[in-house]
Input
Amino acid sequence: MGYRHTLGGESYHFRDIKTLLAVASPLRSGDQLAGLAAQSDAQRMAARYALADVPLRSFVETDLVPYEEDEVTRLIVDTHDHTAFAPIAHMTVGEFRDWLLSHQADTPSLARIAPGITPEMAAAVSKLMRNQDLMSVARKVRVVTKFRNTIGLSGCLSSRLQPNHPTDDLKGIAASTLDGLLYGMGDAVIGINPATDSVANGLALLDMLDHARQLYNIPTQTCVLTHVTNTLEIMNRGGAVDLVFQSVAGTQKANEGFGVNLAILREAHQAALALGRGTVGQNVMYFETGQGAALSAGAHHGIDQQTVEARAYAVARAFDPLLVNTVVGFIGPEYLYDGKQVIRAGLEDHFCAKLMGVPMGCDACYTNHAEVDQDDMDNLMTLLGVAGITFLIGVPGADDIMLNYQSLSFHDILTLRHALGAKPAPEFAAWLERMGLYDPHANQMRPLELGQTPLAKLVSAA
Amino acid sequence: MTEQGKPVVPSRVMADEWHPLRALTRARIGLGRSGNAQRTTDVLAFQAAHAQARDAVHTPLNVQDMERQLHGAECLHVHSRATDRATYLRRPDLGRRLGEQSLHQLRKGAWDVVFVAADGLSSIATQTNAVPFFMAMQPLLPGWRIAPLVIATQSRVALGDEIAQAMGARMVVMMIGERPGLSVADSLGIYLTYAPYVGCPDSLRNCLSNIHAHGMTIPAGAAKLAWLMHEANRLGLTGVGLKDAAPDKVLSKYTPSLHDKDTDA
Output
């Protein structure tokens, strides 16, 4: 059958729902690379008109990847909450957009429907939304998660402190960690991307981080972002694992490219829960995602990159994660060419995840071969801040010397917190205050010299 | 404001206390701040590093200069199907295939190995390091039939496969400019592939990365590559099978993650 719309006297036909979603998507280089993007602006608009009339039920009835051959599809179908879906079941995609923006769609009602929203519905409605729509709906959603502190409360903006080092030097990592703590960073997690991805190295890094955390009684969690199978082995050996990390994508085949499946994630989730290390809650998983991951693994099944990305949030949602973030500009210009495309993608990813009830943060970042610079990052972080992003990633001076890309600096996140009046997670803010680092009335970090804070011993202790 | 009403410039005292800690990492720690923001010196330093990295991506490879570095040794120049830098960046698939004219220009021989010097994402890396690396390999491969150096522009790693096929080489060594970071813009990557063919997967390659003045030196990299090439010759393969046989110090373990998806392959 397919879909049809006439615009400017020309009739456009779209073979199936997958094609319709792809053509309706805002322009990005990854869809062009895959041969899925609209051939003209008019064709894109015709697709949006047609998409606006598609009933949300169509996404329940149609699998973009066959149920029999893809465990992510099976997860989406088998866990779809029909009761939660009922209040919106009669709507088309266009009507859904209008309802989401209405004042009736408040925080409690958005929380009630979240389990009824599939990734494809979230992606579809996002394609009819302008950037401001993506922000104003997302900011109404509250997703609160807990481990040693409380992430995602209204008025809070958390941060991941990312102290990477090209040789995983413990003291070098400790020096960057100290730097970040003095800026009030690290309430989401202190998380290292290891240069060497091995069990022995992961154990050493976790031991150092855990020691530092206990030394100062910091109410946060630490993580080494190593492969889930390494983390399982580290847990077997009694390592200090707070959070299990894994990169995930939106199809079974793309996840196989990452060397994971749902069963191994379940095993790791259970193992981390059994450790019982959380003090205020038991959200123990941390996932990263990013548009383009499925296509780069040759595993996108003809689905546009934004829709297949949203399917990764269904994977994340199944494991009650503490944190999820999109690594939005890292993948390179063949997927997101310039600042405009990176900013749009960051807002889409945040919106879709929040709509589905996933605690979404962002690594607002770029590589040096993309048409992006720090001004684009300023714009993206500010828009995400207004949209209520759960957390942002910060690295010293915005320069990650291990992964060779640029993210946000600690200064940037401090600037944004100040501009928005946003605070760190409450337990972490109270700790910063106890340590004499934070003035809660002015919501400002005090500019201390190293000799004025006991934290400076963190480096010699590493 | 001071008593005289002149604005106070934030002091650098806080930044200087960090001096000993900076010996532990090249990360931009202890910058100090003005209010919440970075100070002028740090903003300019960051932007200057970014400008250099972008120039490394966008400056065309100077082929004449590389020919001069070869002191008269024979070399060939080929071009991928990506006609310009903007196309190259958007279409990795075109950077993996030879332009028609280049394909016709290559003659079949009986070579044990062909070395390719490719611009990749940093022409500066290739211009600085590729010919010295090629020269450093010569004494380490006695008796090998080494094809003339091929200089490739708008090239991805996989372009070497088609070059080796067209020239009848049993092995290809791709020396290619790596994606520049802020601290290093001239880092060379080396990819070794045995019996390469068009469409051959990356899992059949072995890789050495970070070859530059502050990373792996050219003699160290050349010694590692020579070990890999002799083993590849003996086993008749490269890739995972060869990596598993390598001593730990030669190659580190590879686990895929999102952060590996920015492959310049």
